[in-house]
Structures are given as C-alpha cells and as structure tokens.
Amino acid sequence: xxxxxxxxxxxxxxxxxxxxxxxxxxxxxxxxxxxxxxxxxxxxxxxxxxxxxxxxxxxxxxxxxxxxxxxxxxxxxxxxxxxxxxxxxxxxxxxxxxxxxxxxxxxxxxxxxxxxxxxxxxxxxxxxxxxxxxxxxxxxxxxxxxxxxxxxxxxxxxxxxxxxxxxxxxxxxxxxxxxxxxxxxxxxxxxxxxxxxxxxxxxxxxxxxxxxxxxxxxxxxxxxxxxxxxxxx
Length: 233
What we know:
six-stranded mixed sheet; 7 helices; four-stranded antiparallel sheet; Rossmann fold
C-alpha cells in the first residue's frame, strides 16, 4: 500500500496503472525476479516519489513504465497504452511523444552540443523546429548562454539541466526521473531539483521520481516505498 506524505487533492484520470506487474531476468542459476507483483496507480498531474534501498527495484520500475523493459507478468498501462503487449517500436514511439526520462548519469552524447543534445528526441521524431524548441527549453533551465558547449565543457549540474531540457522539450505528459540529483553535490542538486519541479508545475506533466532524498520526496504529492520488488506499507 502507498505511504502518502500528503494527500493528492483531486482524483484525476489515471495515466499509469500497474497490476501485479512482474519483471525477471534470466541468469545461469535461473530467473531472477526484480519486480514481484507490484500494483501502482499514478494520476494526471501527480508527482510521485519512489524510495527504497539499493537493489529494491526502483530503477526497474522506471524501465517498465518507460517501456525500456517489457513486463514478464501482470499488466503495465501508460497513457492508455498496454506496454505488456506493445512491441519495441510502439514503446519507443511512446517515449518520443509523451514520456521524458531523466537519468542519474545524464546520458548526453559527447560529440553533440548542449543544443543538439536537448533537441535529440525531437530530431529523432522528425520535428522540423527541433533546435528552436530545444533552445527555448535550455533558456528556461538557465542554459541559454551554453547552447554550443559540449558535455565535456559543462559542469555536472549543467549537464543534468541539458538532460532535463531534453526530457521536457517534446512537451511530455509524463516525466520519469531516476535519482536525477544523485551525481551532484547538495547545493547543485537542490537547484537542479527546483528546476525540475518548476517545469513540472508549469507544464502540468505528471512525474515519477526515484530518490533517496527525504527532502525531495516531501516536495512530491505522494511517496511509495519499494523493497525487494514490492511496495511496502
């Protein structure tokens, strides 16, 4: 059962529904289960924090909802799409159109500029105005003066801001953030987190954020705790 830190004010449409969701990987010793019958619902515009110890299945939950992994049991529905039966092309299309993902380690392309990195999802989706849209988003995250810099010339905080701009550039309905401040010092992390929350509130997107930081979790509408692949009370 979810452990609410504060009540979600209105019961809005459900955009994520996991029913008995399971994920396991093959190994030399047999199947290794990382998500074990997980039930979860997230509503439109809701900000959910996911906490738990290392290895508890938090990142695997992000992978299931983002379509990076296909559930090996149960059902995963995201924005009206059944990802349990969706093929790779369908899951990729969902990410490009409606889901932005921010990883702990930035995942920027070293040879690309900040502008090219921020525009990457839009470019792959064939948007003619990809770089113009990305430039506006980089301006919103405070990097309008760093458009031509490559990742090696940017600080960790700046690299994560580029990753955030990339995640929000396509106007996603859902943002998945996996320890987005985990590689940053406390002050920089707080600034980056504030940027993310400002964008979420400004766009109306829902967000699921994996975090170890209780201060960040308190900024969210709800907190759930995962341990050993299931939600604990």
